[in-house]
């Protein structure tokens, strides 16, 4: 059995150099800070033909936002780009780095079908079952 498609979301504003290793594993969405953007730019320059489905995407966030708020604000976009309407297979695992799973995050993620949550050393992992085919 193959591994389920997963997406990494990094809300650690100082993740920096660790991004290069993470990007080798799967698609990464990362907060756009000077240190994170520098590494992302290096990856884009080295792999100019890599698509968002396997590459690095940076995203802006309002000043003063908590990691929880940043993640919640990006969930729609992440699901749009890696969910059932854009990716085959759609992502089923969301690995979050830089935030702890909270009751609010669980509630928001349940709206996207995530029903299993595990703490990890760097944050948490949310998983969901294989989504139904939208054409049915």
SSE blueprint and pairings:
Elements lengths: L5 E5 L7 H5 L5 E4 L2 H13 L9 E4 L7 H16 L10 E5 L5 H8 L5 E5 L2 E5 L9
Parallel strand pairs: 1-2, 1-4, 2-3
Antiparallel strand pairs: 4-6, 5-6
Helix pairs in contact: 3-4
Q: What's the architecture, going by CATH?
A: 3-Layer(aba) Sandwich
Strand tally is 6
**What is the mean pLDDT?**
90
> Largest sheet at a glance?
6 strands, mixed
Please state roughly what percent of the residues sit in beta strands, choosing from under 5%, 5-15%, 15-25%, 25-35%, 35-45% or over 45%.
15-25%
Number of helices: 4
Count structural domains. Answer: 1
What is the distance, rounded to the nearest whole angstrom, between the alpha carbons of the first and last residues?
25 Å
* CATH topology-level name: Pyruvate Kinase, Chain: A, domain 1
Q: Kindly name the structural category.
A: alpha/beta
What's the CATH class, please? Alpha Beta
Helix-strand topology string:
EHEHEHEHEE
What's the arrangement of strands in the largest beta sheet? 3-2-1-4-6-5
Q: Supply Rg.
A: 14 Å
Q: Sum up the overall morphology in one term.
A: globular
Q: What low-confidence regions span 5 or more consecutive residues with pLDDT below 50?
A: none
Describe this structure in words.
There is one protein chain. By secondary structure, this protein is of the alpha/beta class. The mean pLDDT is 90. It has a single domain (6-127), classed as Pyruvate Kinase, Chain: A, domain 1 (3-Layer(aba) Sandwich). The chain has four helices and six strands, in the order βαβαβαβαββ. The longest helix is centred in the middle third of the chain and has 16 residues, at 67-82.
């Amino acid at each position: 059995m193959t591994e389920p498609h997963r997406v990494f979301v990094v809300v650690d504003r100082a993740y920096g150099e660790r991004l290069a290793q993470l990007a080798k594993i799967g698609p990464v969405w990362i907060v756009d800070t000077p240190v994170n953007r520098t590494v992302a730019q290096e990856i884009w320059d080295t792999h100019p033909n890599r698509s968002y489905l396997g590459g690095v995407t940076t995203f802006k966030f309002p000043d003063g936002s908590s990691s929880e708020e940043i993640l919640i604000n990006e969930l729609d976009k992440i699901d749009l780009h890696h969910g059932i309407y854009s990716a085959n297979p759609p992502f089923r695992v969301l690995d979050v780095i830089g935030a702890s799973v909270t009751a609010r995050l669980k509630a928001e993620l349940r709206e996207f079908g995530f029903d299993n949550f595990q703490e990890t050393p760097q944050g948490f992992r949310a998983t969901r079952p294989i989504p139904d085919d939208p054409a049915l």
